[in-house]
Amino acid sequence: MDVMQRSNLLESACLFPPPLGLKLSYGTAGFRADASILQSTMFRMGILAALRSLKTHSVIGLMITASHNKVSDNGVKIADPCGGMLSQHWEPFSDQLANAPDPQTLLLLIVEFVKKENIPFDGAFTAEILLGRDTRPSGESLLEAAKQGVRSIVGAVAHDMGILTTPQLHWMVRARNKGLKATESDYFEQLLSSFRCLMDLIPNESKMDEIEDKLIVDGANGVGGEKLEVIKKMLSGLVIEVHNTGKEGGILNEGVGADFVQKEKVVPHGFGSNHAGIRCASLDGDADRLVYFSVASNSSNKIDLVDGDKILSLFAVFIKEQLSILEGDMKGNNNYKARLGVVQTAYANGASTDYLKHLGLEVVLTPTGVKYLHARAAQYDIGIYFEANGHGTILFSEHYLSWLEAKHTELSSISQGSELQKAALRLLAVSKLINQAVGDALSGLLLVEAILRHMGWSIHNWNELYQDLPSRQLKVKVADRTAVVTANAETVVMSPPGLQEAINSEIAKCIKGRSFVRPSGTEDVVRVYAEASTEEEADSLANSVAELVDRFLGVGST
Ligand code: 16G
Ligand code: MG
């Protein structure tokens, strides 16, 4: 780094002093805090994104969003060259950058890191950053801070991609680095053409008339509703009505959205008994989560939730069906059996895991957070991952996709229109429809809709795949949540000593009891999950475990 670069960094850093006395952390998926204190973090993440671009010789993404958090919050996450989350290897550096107390310390940190990581500053490569933001009012000024951060690295270029869903930005980064078409209209075009392809391949015998044409979507008053309005206009064969678009004066994530619906299990604002029985879906504030629900027929505000686990199960059933057609009667020489795997977290309802195992699928658990699930799913030819909260996707390995392309070409020449050829084409269409970079509520929704029509299933048929075990989630405020150390994909507490044994004895009192605790990666709390055979048992197990957490770690304890 030459003198000009150093003075450029120092000068611009002076314009963005960090908030005093506050420790920021990259957390599970980027920084999140009250928007008013994020200017310096945003500026510094602009720098980090530019350094990452230089290091990887690739386009990097910077997304300004706080997902399902309240509207006064905002946040930032970085998309790596493949479109996935920032490499965990760089997370400690992002924490250090965000927390550097003054411009000199910041510069020193950067100089050291550039040396350690061997980041080239020879001008041979132009750092390029795609910036996106959700609909939060604070997004615009935070975007300016991020741009200044990018530009404080001499020669780096910041492209403002405008208001986007988080998955759209990840998709664009991945597409750019693969040399593919990468604009927003390319995104819509890819989704719509692969959706159309799946719809055209629906078997004639599918009982489509049993399915309500109409889908009502809760847009969380965020960016997802806005984008869905665009998709809607280009669709045929599916009627979508979007509520909570944010245009009717509703507030982002307030009593609406996938997080609210999944955690509270009640109707979002704008939905009521007049929607009973109709297929409904809910997106979160940045549209990377999707859950479905139907409004209970009695006049209460209760819903039948169809969560991420059930979306995963629907996808798994469909993919498995296509694979057995394709692999059951292999014609030609070029035959191959795909490795199909399913990835969940400890939050997956126990009934879903049992169901998936009964289907004969390999099911693995990882810790909470997309970066863990995604990495594990990428180890299969086809890896399906979902969190119960509705974040997930289906990954196809490059190797499998090349095989599938070749197989499809071969089948098209020897048995055009055969079931085998159709199965290959369906799998190829799924790989284009479903976002390969990150979980995406919009593409997930289109895939769910296509599969329901393929199966001839109403939302009720789908929901009956298995019966969820009653579950309860609580959070406990403690003195120091980092004192909770877990292992085995967060299912076992290693520290503080004795807590796991105490939890075990509570679990033993319940039929089909299961419970675990973990420190939240996004809030200063310890989370408690419990499930059991009845609502009462699940509630009481959650309460007893929360009491244990409080006893071992409560605000008063040290
Ligand atoms: C973030 C994660 C989500 C996870 C949630 C857990 C990403 C993109 N998002 O929203 O996957 O379920 O955090 O929050 O990784 P918690 O640690 O507060 O429970
Ligand atoms: Mg989100």
From TrEMBL:
Keywords: Isomerase, Magnesium, Metal-binding, Phosphoprotein. The active site is at S67 (phosphoserine intermediate). It comes from the Eukaryota. It catalyses: N-acetyl-alpha-D-glucosamine 1-phosphate = N-acetyl-D-glucosamine 6-phosphate. Mg(2+) binds at S67, D284, D286, D288. Its cofactor is Mg(2+). One of its GO terms (biological process) is carbohydrate metabolic process. This is Phosphoacetylglucosamine mutase. Residues 494-547 form the Alpha-D-phosphohexomutase C-terminal domain. Its EC number is 5.4.2.3. Pathway: Nucleotide-sugar biosynthesis; UDP-N-acetyl-alpha-D-glucosamine biosynthesis; N-acetyl-alpha-D-glucosamine 1-phosphate from alpha-D-glucosamine 6-phosphate (route I): step 2/2. InterPro entries: A-D-PHexomutase_a/b/a-I (IPR005844), A-D-PHexomutase_a/b/a-I/II/III (IPR016055), A-D-PHexomutase_C (IPR005843), A-D-PHexomutase_C_sf (IPR036900), AMG1_II (IPR049023), AMG1_III (IPR049022), PAGM (IPR016657). Residues 182-291, 307-457 form the Phosphoacetylglucosamine mutase AMG1 domain. PANTHER family: PHOSPHOACETYLGLUCOSAMINE MUTASE. Gene3D superfamilies: Alpha-D-Glucose-1,6-Bisphosphate, subunit A, domain 3, Alpha-D-phosphohexomutase, C-terminal domain. GO terms for molecular function: metal ion binding; phosphoacetylglucosamine mutase activity. Substrate binds at E387, A388, N389, R518, P519, S520, G521, T522, R527. Interconverts GlcNAc-6-P and GlcNAc-1-P. The lineage of its organism: Eukaryota, Viridiplantae, Streptophyta, Embryophyta, Tracheophyta.
